[in-house]
Amino acid sequence: MHRQTKLRLQLLLGTALLAAPVSAFAQTAPVQTAPVQTAPTAASAEPAGLDDIVVTATKRETNLQDTPISISVVNAEALADRHVQSLMDLADGSVPSLRIATFEARQSALTIGIRGIVPNDANQPAREQGVGVYVDGVYLARQHGLAAALLDIERVEVLKGPQGTLFGRNTEGGALSLVTKKPTGVFGMRAIAGVGNLESYNSELHVDFPALGDFAFKVDGIISVQGPVTENILPGQTGFGEYDRRGLRFQTRWTPAENFTATLAADISKDKNTPFYSQLLNFNPNGLTVVPFTSATVPSGSIRALSPLVQVEGSNRMTQADIGVPQQFSVDDTRGMDLHLSYRPTDSLEIRSITAYRDLDVEQYDNIAGAHRPPVVGPNGRFSRYSLAGFWQHQFSQELQAVGSLGDSIDYVGGVFYFKETVSDDAATPSTNQWNADGTGYTILDPTPTIRGFRSLDRASTAHSESKAIYGQATWTPASMDALHLTVGGRYTWDDKDGKLEVVNNAATNLTFSSKVDRFDPLVTLAYDVSSNINVYGKYSTGYRAGGASSRSLTYRSFDPEEVKAYEVGVKSDLFDRRVRLNAAVYAMDRTDSQIDFSLVTVQGASTRNTLETINAPGTTKIRGVELEGQFRASDNLTLSASYAYTDAKVPDTINPFNGQVQQVFIAYTPENAGSVAADWNSPFMGATLKAHIDANYADAAHSFEQFAIKADSSFVVNARVAIADITTRDGGPLLEVALWSRNLLDETYVYRRDPSNRNTLGDYGNFNNPRTFGIELRASY
């Protein structure tokens, strides 16, 4: 503990030392300085209206209220109010239609879904996501690395429904677009440092350097660390639920002329993390006959008793594991570069180019459950499944866009897109522990089988993807009826994919798949301005998720693309002098060839194998829903907001490939009802500003797996933050902000992932949400 406290003090001192020379340089350099911020004045009798929100969902900057798409926006202030450090923190349900969960218990690979489009296992080389994730317009093809620390995000745009025309493949549920803050050429600096419970601390430094000629520069750095949620009792080994996330980003913007801009960005991040503990929620729920742990055999209809060392906490999150296991940090290394070019030959035309390369390396070490999941063995048997995996990905993308207008009646976007990717992985699952004769003790096995080169591989595979597309979209506003807006668009895509499963159960194989698909995705939207503050629209769109093959399959079973057709009507309104904002959307989505996962865990000697087969469901999956969002500016000091999502999804019964039986299947991680409410207070306070935020987020219980009817728990999470901001220090000095924050303020405990697949050998096991976290944070800005 003394070492950790010393480290935090060094971190705080280091931030201050970094800030000092930059500040001195800014005060001596002959450049234009940013305007001095002042505390807001007292509330007026008539509250000001709600601010406009700018979005880029149509590849151009538009007002959210004038954009005929269902979109939720989380801006930088909201991210700070909720103490959002990574996309994983948005799993609290702050955007009800957006669902985020871990794959298995791993913080390193996130499952992201919108409107019931939730791929449960997209972390394989030949499998794809159903919701596209973008950073400054660059597509991130893999769900690995998505939990990395966020680097100076200006806003997160959640685009709901198929985005197949402007964003392309793998956006059938929608798109998650992260927009970062860009260099300004004007000096500015923000430093953040904080500490909290669970041995957590965080620090950020964001510096906008003064312009040097035509060049502007910006550097962002971030560190976010948290200790274990569940302690590992094996000395010297990492616990469960830990992370250490660090990132660095450099940007330079070159503006040699008023009509040309080039922005080059490079980033690197390292996400060291451990999985959440997978613990038994019950034992023998099917009421089988219990035989002693020391029994030589387990007859049919019976179940072996647990070791006396194994604890079943049921509805309580374990703060200390009952079984100590070898475990080290999993490490996700991500890096990339992107070049954005913008040329405006005329006032009515902008030509853009986005060139990007990204690289991802993952080393996974997940020993997540001790004796709480298979392999299930008796006297002197080996147990504790150590999931060891490597994952490597390289991607290149190039996009050209033309964004312009023809007179006053037509706005258009057109472009071409190219994407190429190579992905490979391997996986091994040795057992690390061995029971004694009566289960009263255990030993740690020789670590050699956990070392790369000595592992007995369950699988190893490589996949390649190449995608090309051409797209266009135009909005026509008739001169004689300027309240009417007709948008028509389409995208033609050519997809080539192939892969090879090189190893199955440590034996070389030659299992391959190859797929070539070309398709057209149209969009038609009709919008009408009922008044200057009320807009209605109707929309038809399509999208698809590419097919592939399951590398967890013994036969490398391939599956076809799935596609969705969506119908949506909505209204966007600003009422009562823009003090009330109400937006609503009602949609129906019909998905065909739904990709459904079936898994089977088998014991192979001292290890287990999770075999997964993906099947295209017959018929049509019907997803229906309603989305509501509202804000109320009650006074200049108080703003209230609320949002709600209703989702009803029905998947046709599908044949389980492991037993040949037709069974009911479900949509994962999609509650029928989910909602969020929030209140924000902002008022003068002793020459500074008092800022207070509280939000509450609810979701119904949802399925964790497509093949099991059992659900996890409902959730209710409250977050809060109180800050004194705009504290002046001296003339020309920084403005300070001191804040107290808490996530899961009420310390709600719930199972977000429940696995019933081992009911006849152990019981249900699952993963709990994070406990209450809290801390204090200091911000300084120039």
What would you note in describing this structure?
With 782 residues, this protein is mainly β. It contains two helices and 45 strands. It has a 22-stranded antiparallel beta barrel.
Give me a quick take on this structure.
With 782 residues, the protein is mostly beta strands. The protein is built from two helices and 45 strands. It is globular and about 85 Å long.
Number of strands: 45
Our Rg estimate from Cα atoms comes to 27 Å
Major sheet size, sense and barrel closure: 22 strands, antiparallel, barrel
User: Per the principal axes of the C-alpha atoms, what is the gross shape?
Assistant: globular
| Distance, first to last CA | 34 Å
Q: What portion of the residues fall into strands of 2 or more residues?
A: over 45%
* Total of helices: 2
Alpha-beta content class: mainly beta
pLDDT average, as an integer? 91
What is the share of helical residues?
under 10%
Weakly predicted, low-confidence segments: 1-44
Q: Main traits of this protein?
A:
single chain, 782 residues, mainly beta, 22-stranded antiparallel barrel, 2 helices, 55% strand, disordered N terminus
